């Protein structure tokens, strides 16, 4: 990903910053678009993964819709020119203000997560003489076999309507003149690398679609969410295998004629196109441990501190790849969890070297914070 030319260019820039490789982003988007089109599937980009404008503009230009989880994400999607008919609004805690604004914006649909939320949307839509399109987010109780902090589709999770609440949901839909039922929605978790999980999801989607049809509902949309993982251990494996992913849904979903299948991919589209570039401030060689102290910390990239997430770390100032010293790579924040990697094998490192923390395009820049009164994280783009 990085050539010597890149390194010289980085040397001019103040660190830390997210470097976005827009050519790789485009390649990833194109690959996903082609694979989805082969099956006639629709993709809504999960904007929470990264709402950097330069990325959003590319994603919109590829023809994808937007999956939003807050009123501000809905506003941002509209502002960046996403088609309102391709904007969906999910989230377990939509406020009245957010619902009203989304109704005013005439977005495609609300992914509704409880019976009470159905009642509130019905009431607010009625006041505006509008009919809100809704899909029911169902919690299918499918284990995604991913980190427990990013699992969402089990009975113990707060997301979606549980199976035992579906009769009440169906009643609420029948009684609500200001709601139009369009389909069912699922999202079982993130960073899913075992694709068999999606076969289990398809079985559940088929069952729940039939459940609604048996009760007289037309299920026009099957929204199966996102979650496709990326290879953090091998960032060179840059474009995810979208063809195999979509094929599972093509093979296992019992799609009816005129039914649309929707996806909400975030990480798989943007994860590999970025690295966090940071400068080595200090090297501390101890008896038991060596530390590299970077100018980036958990305030710039929170994933390792929050989920013990692995990101590959490279010293990009060194040409010699053979040298090997083990370092704990840490940031400057006053927290012991402010650590990007323990016992990381790197070339012998000096103050001033540049380090790349790879695969940071998803849930990186957007989860940065001002803790310790840190500055806004900087960004740079390459093509
Ligand atoms: N749809 C819904 C309803 C979601 O909740 C999410 C992610 C997605 C789609 C997109 O999932 P993706 O394709 O990106 O896996 N901050 C965590 C990830 C949280 C994911 C939240 N929901 C991380 O850094 O790993």
From TrEMBL:
Keywords: Amino-acid biosynthesis, Decarboxylase, Lyase, Lysine biosynthesis, Pyridoxal phosphate. It catalyses: meso-2,6-diaminopimelate + H(+) = L-lysine + CO2. The keyword Amino-acid biosynthesis applies. The active site is at residue 334. InterPro entries: Ala_racemase/Decarboxylase_C, DAP_deCOOHase_LysA, De-COase2_C, De-COase2_CS, De-COase2_N, De-COase2_pyr-phos_BS, Orn/DAP/Arg_de-COase, PLP-binding_barrel. It comes from the Bacteria. Its EC number is 4.1.1.20. SUPFAM superfamilies: Alanine racemase C-terminal domain-like (SSF50621), PLP-binding barrel (SSF51419). It is an enzyme of class 4 (lyase). Residues 17-361 form the Orn/DAP/Arg decarboxylase 2 C-terminal domain. The keyword DNA-binding does not apply. The modification N6-(pyridoxal phosphate)lysine is found at residue 48. CDD domains: PLPDE_III_DapDC. Residues 41-270 form the Orn/DAP/Arg decarboxylase 2 N-terminal domain. This is Diaminopimelate decarboxylase. It comes from Pedobacter westerhofensis.
